Every structure is written in structure tokens, then in C-alpha cells.
Amino acid sequence: MFTERTSVGLDVHARSVVAAAIDGVTGELFQSRLTPSFDHITAWLRDLPGPVAVAYEAGPTGFGLCRHLRSAGIRCEVVAPSKLHRPPGDRVKTDAKDALLLARLLRIGEITSVVIPSVDQEAARDLVRAREDARADLTRARHRLSKLLLRHGIVYSGGGAWTGKHDLWLRTEAFAQLTTTAGPTIGVTFDAHYDAVLAVTARRDRLDDAIEQLAAGSEFTPLVRRLGCLRGIGDLTGLALAVEIGDWHRFTGRSIGSFVGLVPTESSSGATRAQGAITKTGNTHVRRLLVEAAWHHRRPYTLTKTLRDRWDLAPAAARARGDEGNRRLHARWVRFIERRKRNTTADVAIARELAGWCWSLAVLE
Prior knowledge:
By secondary structure, the chain is α/β, with parallel strands linked by helices.
């Protein structure tokens, strides 16, 4: 129930903030255009009939304003934009109308707030997302180089790509064959693409080192070690799950799959129920990590040295829980294969259940 006297909606942008406030006693509407200065916004809020509650949409401006207002004793909620209820017939969208809509929805309690991460958690999340960006950049850089060679009929057939042997082939045979076929000018293009691959690889490796250090000695370490009892979840994946999800106690083993968009869409009416592809809502990064980790459970379950080393760092209860989860998830893979399910469909189903096992380890006392 809304208990404050005045509800405030803020439409926050990089260079301006549009504010709308509704006095619940008199019904008076206050509107203003403010600067992005936290002190300016706080001073304007102090002049309103109190107490005051504030809401603004999550976006690129981050959570600094929310932290500042909360430290000043003002309740502030950051709203999930995808959960806002907008009139379907409203075709006029302005900053002032958005701010007023937020103020009204806040007063009647029709907003869905996002969890505000701590400063340390947000810094760690930025680190793992930077590593995700480096992974995507490396894939693009490698594709540019390999497709340059492919356009000139040069294809590597000596084993796996992007290994030491493949790198030697690129620098010697592939370069020589390319310049012979297309002339020396193409060598400049090859060098540019090859240098890009080396630069992004070095950036990715630096981020991996930083993530390993953070996973081994930070507030997230106990959780990362418990999650590491499951196959496919090393330091990188474990830390990413820890900082992206934050408070695991918000969920249950069943609801966490919905948070990461791994549950099927549904359109039901009366006695008719139709389910479709997964919703793909929520945290895209977490969903991708879970789908990748689920593939590890397809192979027969054995206690490898890598998994045993991770188990040595985890509590006994987490090891037992992880062993149970690993056996269960592999058995699920076996049943899907016996039923001739498509691998991609089966993997998503395993990823949804893997999310539940991760939750059970995260909340393990």
C-alpha cells in the first residue's frame, strides 16, 4: 500500500529530468524540468508536501540517482520498463506524460521494481559484461579473417581452428597463398584483421585473469564455489550468475526459469492451451550461460579432475547437492535422446532445470 503523501515520477535523461508529482491530499499536480544534478533533484523533492516517494525507469543512466535519494531518506523505486502498463489507445508519448504515468502507477502500486545492486556488485557485473563483449568482438574478428581467406578459396584443413597450429598456418601458408593469389595489397587487409584478432584475444585474456581473481577472493567467492559443483559452471559462469542475479532468495526453483526467459510462451483461453517457443525475456546474458552450461551434461557423468578440484573448494553439502544435480541432468539428457528430441530443444529444457539446481545451491546455508 502506498503510504507517502506525494508520488513522483521522473523521466530521466542524460541532460534533463522531467518530473511530475501528485499530492495525494489536495490532488495538486506539480511539474518541472530539472537538471540531472542529484542535488537539484533532491532540493526540488524537498519542497514538495512530504513524505515523498519517487519512481523512474531503469535505463542507461544507471542507479546512482536511486542510491543518492535513498541515502537522503527518500523512498525511490527503479521501474522495469517492460512491465509498465500503458493504455493501448494512447498514441502520444512525451517526457511529461511518461513522468505523470509513473507518478500515477506508483500511487496505485502498479509498478514492478528492479533490484538495485550494490556498488561492488555492479562493478563486478560490468566486468563480466565487458568479458562478454570481448567474446563477441573476438568472434567477429575471427570471422572477418576467416571469411577473407574463404573469399579467395583458402580453407584450413589441418584440424581445429584457432589453435597454435592454426595460428602458425595463418602467419605462414595462408598469408603467402593469399598474397600470391590476390597480390601484395591484400596483405595489408590480412594484417589488419589478424592484428584485430590478437588485440581482442589479449583483452579477453586480461579480463579472464581479473575475473579469476575476483572469483577467488571477494564477497562472491562462497557462492561461486557452491555453483562450481555443477558441471559446466566454472569461475567465469559462476561469477556471472552470482552478480547478474544478485538476490537469489527472490525466486524459487520453479520461478527462476521464468526470470531468465527459459519457460515457454503460452496463449490459453477456456479449455484451449497452446504453448510455443521460450519467452526469451529477462537477463539475456544469464540465459546464454545456462544454455551453454547445459551442453556439458550431455556427456556421461564422470568426476573429472577439473570438477574434483572445484569440489575441493566447496562445502560438503554443496558437493552432495551438485552430485545429485549432475546425475539428474545427465539422466534427463538420456531420456530426451531416447525420445528423439531435437538437441536444441532438449538443451533448453536442461538449461531451465539447471537454473533450478543453481538456485538450490545459491540458497544453500
